[in-house]
């Protein structure tokens, strides 16, 4: 292992490598958000009900969550840069399949392949950051990575609307070809080679993990939507039993697929749980807020989109400052303050007057977004920084697992809340958003009691 790789890349090489990695991450995030806008058109085009068309989104997210930890383990063995390139190839090929899909099952299968490609990118991107950036400015790299993810979430609907205004929905996937080609060029020529650890791949544990996550996620989603109770409980039981068997199988291993060794570290565990609950809180806001703006506050679609914009705008605005703060102050300070601000922003949204002005809404959302932007980079750095060098792949995967699993569980809880709460359900969601954000802040603060926080 060369000193260059250990201490990060020189400035020029670092900028090229980060550009390639950022473009790859942006693609994987964009393709989740742009498709949401096109679901009605896809349903009409493929002659399927709206409820079935949702699997165009679900297939992508489910496979991404299931595959994150296995591909992170593969990244340790095959090289993180190599796996990122493999992910880009899978992503671009799957985009072509999506564009020409003649039916919903074919499109859902192609989206699952896209999700696998996205997992290859997201499972190693945090690990690559540790080799692209020198340790003393690693926080800036993590903040920039978070900025790219925030931008992907923010501009996805806008890009989708622009494309659909002049073209059909398959072009949402075809635009990935030039972008993916550019990302692959930089990934091939600029990403650093990283150390590999010896050993084979644990296929049995990967299968157990797929059963665990798949059973729990699909079963939880069915429960939230009040589907058939027998099948739902069977899926949840399958997932729970598989998870127990998987954990028992991983105990004592030096490089487990499910990183129980990292979760045994107090600082890492606290950072993971902080991220998990923070993203549950964010989905308690992000999912129901457009409905609240349109159905209760009587804003039109354009005004609703503009009023949601302060959330990603705030994340982008604070990113340069947060990157520098992350390199100077511990996560326990920054993440706790950030989540407390986010929770207060959600609480102020919950307590708004019955007929608020656009400014009343916007500044509260901006406040919550600014706090979220302050929380994320230092918390991610804490996860990466507390992991041993030989476990950086597992830590990288868990950074994305905390985000995607939190968003998935948050989505289920929102569906459950909207189904059960008849009186002011959107206000209830905002109350849960505030409470969960404060819970995440308290978990973050608990790092003062453990080493490595």
Structural notes for this entry:
With 453 residues, this protein is mainly alpha-helical. The protein is built from 21 helices and no strands. The longest helix is centred in the first third of the chain and has 35 residues, at 11-45. The radius of gyration is 21 Å and the shape is globular. 53% of the residues are buried. Mean pLDDT is 86; it is low at 1-5. GO terms for molecular function: transmembrane transporter activity. It is a multi-pass membrane protein.
Concise structural overview:
The chain is mainly α and 453 residues long. The protein is 80% helix and 0% strand. This is DHA2 family multidrug resistance protein-like MFS transporter.
Give the overall pLDDT as a whole number: 86
Largest sheet: none
Given the structure, what is the number of helices? 21
Q: C-alpha Rg, in Å? A: 21 Å
User: What do we call the CATH homologous superfamily of the largest domain?
Assistant: MFS general substrate transporter like domains
Broad CATH class of the largest domain: Mainly Alpha
Estimate the strand proportion: under 5%
The CATH topology of the largest domain is what?
Growth Hormone, Chain: A
Overall tally of domains: 3
Which H/E pattern describes the elements?
HHHHHHHHHHHHHHHHHHHHH
Distance between the termini: 28 Å
Helix content: over 70%
User: Which structural class is indicated by helix and strand composition?
Assistant: mainly alpha
Number of DSSP E strands: 0
Poorly predicted residue ranges: 1-5
In the CATH classification, which architecture of the largest domain applies? Up-down Bundle
Protein name: DHA2 family multidrug resistance protein-like MFS transporter
Organism: Acidocella aromatica
Main location: membrane
Subcellular location: Cell membrane
